[in-house]
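Run log, item B.
One chain of 324 residues. Sequence copied directly from the ordering sheet:
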Amino acid sequence: MPVRLALAGDTMLGRKVAERLAADGPDTLLAPEVVAVAAEADLMVCNLECCVSSRGRRWPDPAKPFFFRAPPVATKVLGRLGVDCVTLANNHALDFSEEALLDTFGHLESAGIAWVGAGPDLARARQPVVLQAAGLRVAVIGVADHPEDFAAGPDHAGIAYADLRDDVPAWLTGLVASADADITLVTPHWGPNMVAEPVPHVRAAAAALQAAGATIIVGHSAHVFHGVGPGGVLFDLGDFLDDYAVNPTLRNDVGLLWLVDVDATGLRRVEAVPLALDYCHTRLGEGDDAAWVRRRFREACARLGTNATEEDGRLVVDVAGQGR
């Protein structure tokens, strides 16, 4: 029997989202209907695009434009959504330096939420987390291809960094191949922002990770969702919750909440539920917004060689039926 996973992309709980969180409380950022969709899953994984702390200093890079730090109460938002594991392998984990990242680990642990993709040292940053549901063990591996200066070291905190531009490093393929689980989920933060489809090095990395034994690949970074690729690669989940400026062409003010059915043989089925990302609030997509999402998703899948259909307002890709 497959396990059903809920997957959300970039979840940013800092800056203006943090201000709304402080003013209105953790129950106001997500519409109840969104929480109800996530509750259909056995497990939920998302990309946490911020640190969680009330301490720390901004990362000392004069060229860095954005710094995201959520207050400790932000873990209640994740708890309400039913998040089991977050990846911290991204370009905001160290926005407020090591002190805030170390705090993040503690706040997540206190909330009962696992994390991957970062750690107090290199070994922990690369370490998978194994979740269990529906009688299956799901190993989650988090990695990012930027920024290199956020990389964890043998004796300092940071992210699991991997330069994917030329090839997937041996340590990462070895980690995937040796994962002790029925299902291996690799969640990379890869490629540039604001692109409508995966760039060549991302596609090549996905193929290499599949060859190494990844059961499912769940990417993010572009801030806009991409289609489902051959074998069921989810190249980019898009944004989920934020206060970001909106690109009127790529439309990062809409998105998807993903429900996927996966077993030891691979990804079998994808359901994608349209979302509207209002300023610091996420709700189900309706009307013209939902129609735009459905049209763009079908087109994005077609360009990648898969077929998406619609069932009761949800977008569906029958991965098993289309072959892997």
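Observations after the first pass:
- The radius of gyration is 18 Å.
- The mean pLDDT is 97.
Flagged for discussion on Thursday.
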